[in-house]
Amino acid sequence: PLVREPLEALRRPSLSVPVLSPLFCRDGNLQDIVNRGSLHEFLVGLHDQFGSVASFWFGRRPVVSLGSVDQLQQHINPNRTTDSFETMLKSLLGYQSGSGTGGTEALMRKKVYEGAINKTLENNFPILLKLAEELVGKWQLYPKSQHIPLCAHLLGLSMKAVTQLAMGSRFSDDTAVIRFRKNHEAIWSEIGKGYLDGSLEKSSSRKAHYESALAEMESVLKSVIKERSGQGSMCIWAVHFLSISEAVQEKLHQELIDVVGDGPVSLDQIPQLRYCQQVLNETVRTAKLTPIAARLQEVEGKVDQHVIPKETLVIYALGVVLQDADTWTLPYRFDPDRFTDESVMKSFSLLGFSGNQACPELRFAYTVAAVLLSTLVRRLRLHQVKGQVVEARYELVSTPKDDTWITISKRD
């Protein structure tokens, strides 16, 4: 049975940030996170209650959460050198920030990643085109009434893109791709949920499955988890949003005809597809594609009047910020034209989704999505399935809870 320990057993953080008191000090607010359904949904409620700067307990560890652009800007500037994905996982799992060399190491690693991804795209761009052509060619054979499951098709596309570009012909066989995808999904689900709510440690069968899948994945490819998850979800959400916005779809079609014409898109043409970039930016924002990031406080810092001690994990509640009405006009509307506003782009870049703050993997995801849309939208019209309600599942990357469906028709 659970034993309720006195809250005084928790070491009160030496900061003035409003804190959500936990029921049990052993687990902190983990049960509150579980009850909300995800860390993102918990943070939405936390910031609704306490404002843009708040804190909670992850087990016995205090965590600060920032939920507005102004507070993020104050914190990012002196703490921009660490990788947010890795920081959060390492911090929650008990790593310390080290001797201060982590920032330099992270910058060097980022440069290596950027060089490797750029070279991979340049050398293997025809593979991306081939994969997109194969998918669109398959869809063109479907009748108008055929319901197409986006998650099943586009997660498969993204997995093939990552594995074939990274490891070549080894993953040209669908059986290997399916095996890899199953292991990947088992791992990603537990990273996104099991670690964050503590449930993985409480289930021996889940932990055994996770460790088995992890061992097999590590022997194949260690970096694919992060790259594939973002790009697959971006493709799914982009096609979904286009299917429910005919005007956006037609405007994108016109740009593709003007820039690309009838032939296949080239890598050099992708930066010229400005409206396509706006569509993908708005996809990231509306879907809250990456709802959470983090920084580990390397030295004592300050946000507004709040002092944040060294070694404090600071969560960036990006999913909260991306729907903040003070930053985005009509935040729940899918409107790519908002990104013609320079101030909007500045806020978006600050959050790490474009410009110098963006991670190298994001460029890979944008490129895959741009190739898919340039191939798909020039040949087919995308239509929503009437009566379908699409709900999101928020882990470290947001995806539809269930598969989302569209129908298509051929363009004249």
TrEMBL record:
Keywords recorded for this protein, A-Z:
Heme, Iron, Metal-binding
State the source organism's domain of life.
Eukaryota
For molecular function, the Gene Ontology terms on record are: heme binding; iron ion binding; monooxygenase activity; oxidoreductase activity, acting on paired donors, with incorporation or reduction of molecular oxygen
Q: Which residues bind heme?
A: 359
Does Transmembrane count among this protein's keywords?
no
State the needed cofactors, names only.
Answer: heme
Recorded hits in SUPFAM superfamilies, A to Z, give:
Cytochrome P450 (SSF48264)
GO CC terms: membrane
A Pfam family hit: p450
Presence of keyword Iron: yes
* Record-linked InterPro entries: CYP450_20A1-like, Cyt_P450, Cyt_P450_E_grp-I, Cyt_P450_sf
- Family named by the database record: Belongs to the cytochrome P450 family.
Name of the molecule in the record: Cytochrome P450, family 20, subfamily A, polypeptide 1
